[in-house]
């Protein structure tokens, strides 16, 4: 019988370039999760500030190809480009990283045009934190049932909704979510307990958090008519 090898949880190697509020928070979090993270900034004070929250901290100008090459940046699996104000530096850095063969380059965009350019030159993931957070907060403000909102594409989202008394005791079977609304209930959260892929007859209780995925129009319809 073939022996099954237990997959060891691997430590992954990350680098964060630009230690402003965004890059700094990514760096701290990766470090606190036990990953190896190299913190890079051209500003020496920033480098010193993040030394305790990184595996290595290094002062370097990331637009300088040779300095990224000599650090061995190609050996990092994920590199986060968190340079904001200097759009030119952010673009150049992303280009150098893709040229060096870094498999996953995540770049922070400052505005829509910056986002488009980063996409074009091969950034693997482009994030626009202020814009994304603004959208999420707008959804929270509009409806007190929407707890969180994640854009999956222009038309599809994943949202967390608070179950009201209107659905207390209802189940997937009685709600006809797929048939009537074309949406999918991924999980029911009850306090700290998370019921992923709930069965057709598992009851929803008032106050539960429903994690639902679907087309924005269908989600809105469900929220308005049912909850
Ligand atoms: P925040 O995340 O705080 O909103 P921001 O978008 O305003 O940041 P900046 O403050 O412009 O971004 O840049 C973040 C960091 O990136 C700064 O600490 C800056 O020193 C660093 N940085 C800018 N250009 C480079 C570069 N070429 N090489 C390395 N670090 C750089």
From TrEMBL:
Q: Which GO terms describe its biological process?
A: potassium ion transport
Q: Which PANTHER family match?
A: KTR SYSTEM POTASSIUM UPTAKE PROTEIN C, POTASSIUM CHANNEL PROTEIN 2-RELATED-RELATED
Q: Which InterPro entries match?
A: NAD(P)-bd_dom_sf, RCK_C, RCK_C_sf, RCK_N, Trk_Ktr_HKT_K-transport
Indicate the segments forming the RCK N-terminal domain, all copies: 11-127
Name the chain's protein.
Potassium transporter Trk
The record's annotation in Gene3D superfamilies points to: NAD(P)-binding Rossmann-like Domain, Regulator of K+ conductance, C-terminal domain
- What organism is this sequence from? Alkalicoccus urumqiensis (Bacillus urumqiensis)
| Gene Ontology MF, one | monoatomic cation transmembrane transporter activity
Q: Which domain of life is it from?
A: Bacteria
